[in-house]
Amino acid sequence: MNKWIVFYLITLISAFANAQEELDTSSFELIIPIEINDSKAMLGNIVNLSRKDFLTMAASFDDPSRLLTRYPGFTGGNDQNNSIIYHGMPSYMTGWSLYGSEIVNPNHLSTAGNVHDHYAPSSGGVNAFSGQVIGEFSFRANPDVNTSNDYFAGVSNIKLRTPYANKLSINTSLIGMELGVDLKSENSDFLINGRYSTVGLLSSLGLDFGDESINYLDLSAKYGRKLFGGRINVYGLYGQSSNFKEGLPSSESSDIVDATAKDHSSELLITGINFEKETSNGLIESTTNYSVEDQMNFLSNPFFVTQTNFAYKMLSHSSSYTHFLDKMDLEFNFRAKKFGNRKLDRGVFQYSVFAKHSFSNFWHFRFGLSLMTAPAEEQLNLTPKWRLNPSLGITKIHKNYNQITRFKFSRNQQLGTRPTLLLYNVQEFTSAYNFQLEIEWTKQKFAINAFYHHFDDVYQNPGFGTDYSIFDDFHLLRSNSFGDIAVASANIFGISFSKSTSLSDRMSLKLNTTFLKGFQKYQTNFFGSGEAIFEKSEIPYSLRFSSNILFSCKDFLIKHLDLSLSFSANDGKFIREQIQLIDPFRDRLPYFFRADARLNYHFKKKKRKYKSMLSLDIQNLTGRKNYSDFYFDQILQELIFQEQLGFIPILSWRVVI
To answer: Which is it for strands 611-619 and 592-603: parallel, antiparallel or unpaired?
Structure first.
């Protein structure tokens, strides 16, 4: 595969070798519309990203989830997928929404990077919403007193970008080949963008990329129009992905990976309508989304054969009205969703009210109440459930505006909203209590964030034994059950430090470090024995530390060439010794370290209408061998540590005509 990557790089470089002459003073505004605001940042536990972040940050690969790992408290689960781990909580505790209303997992290749190709309910290899069509991306982490969500870690929200004025856009890279069309008039606009896997395209032309055939495609569209004094957006996305591999005979297999055949395929459909309107003293927002994720996964080797099929469907709605008063804002929210495997057979409704009051220019108080209900459903034998959830936020700004103190508290819960949990009749809400205290020195651009998360009634499949962690993606996604469902509780607490500084008018530096600790305990009726078993152990997925350094420089070495460097390090997760019963989580994987770099050269040729940018995005500059997980190889009869990706260069060319 490496020789074809080199061939691909040489081909693209030679195509633009003669395009470096007669450059003008172009900038990112040539390929990013001026109306896109790039003054985005992290505000407390809310991360906002713009189009510029997709085009400048190292190893982003046009994927919003990968950008989050540069911020305090975030890490990734595996270089081969875009999973988000926030404050030690695994990726299934995060969710996705489009214009504020929930959707299914919007990622291709949801088995990528996972041990034995298990499904990931909220991550994958590539986000189906390309960076070409995302206009805004935000992650609202808990505790969150600004909106309601039933995901423990937080929710990623996507808004599609505003179309350019009658433009054709082209993006080609090793990630995918894209073509988009933008149409814009005085009262309406239209955007359509298609993408096809570059590796899949080259494979179909006869190039050999190894023993696996990986492919995906997606088509997204959006129509916007001024209506009733506001704006209405109608949008949709269709995607397909597949991963096929033929297993070798046992006599020719050196390990279990060689002997395993797999056939994974998925289809994704997301459609919706959004309406927004500003009034003289308020804001109205309403969104309805329908989304379906249809998956098939077949695995076969001399030791087992499995096939899993599911179609996870969701119909969701979110409406809010914010009323602005002199010193107070009132926000009323209604959220509803029907979801299920194969059919919409479960429902959750949520009613919320939030009040923000400013006692002065320096004291701000926000209080909210959310009522979540789950109606009785005869098929699942659920009795009606309801929970009232308070949230609280206090902000103190010192008179010199140099220091800001924020305190946030929220309570949230979920009711079996993940595909894996639909296998069971979960009759209780799972609850979480979240606390955060943050002090920010604005003049020094330095912040400290202390946090605490507590979880009750977390349902899990304990697997073979009762000491698997509720915070391990892999074990929660097991399709087989060796025992009864365990009920667990857990605590996570820690502290983050972040600092940013301008080294000069061209260079900037950002640093952050997070330290945390976690414990769990659980109760289970193992194999129906009627015996309650209690245990307490350190959470295997909870990292003890994570750190990031971001460096950026404009006009690096030559004019119009920008450089972005990123350095990430974190503790390895716990691993469970299969035989060790006294202290099963005594060992950890080696620490993780990765260095990334990105070079952007943006130019516009004189007397030409097109504007373009050439980028070289490199993941894992040092080629360090990082490990993501481990498994027992039945052929080798030993534990094997699963390696993450090595040195990966991605050359891309963006053109707007």
So the answer is: antiparallel
Short-list 545, 548, 546, CA closest to 510: 548
C-beta atoms surrounding 548 within 10 Å: 21
Report the alpha-carbon distance of residue 196 to residue 216 in Å, rounded: 6
Q: What is the DSSP string of 206-259?
A: T----SEEEEEEEEEEEEEEEETTEEEEEEEEEEEEEEEEPPPPGGG-SSHHHH
Three-state DSSP at 578 gives coil
Q: What is the mean pLDDT of residues 403-428?
A: 65
Q: How far is CA 491 from the centre of its chain?
A: 23
Q: What's the whole-model pTM score?
A: 0.86
CA distance 346 to 402: 49
CA distance 111 to 127: 13
Q: What is the DSSP letter of 114?
A: -
pLDDT tens-digit map of 453-482: 998 877 655 444 444 566 665 444 333 334
d(CA 364, CA 328): 10
For 316-352, how does the pLDDT look when each residue is reduced to its tens digit (9 = 90+)? 999 999 999 888 999 999 999 998 887 887 788 889 9
For residue 437, the model assigns a pLDDT of 95
Cβ density class 236-270: b for 16+ within 10 Å, e for less: bbbbbbbbebebbeeeebeebbbbbebbbebebeb
pLDDT at 299: 87
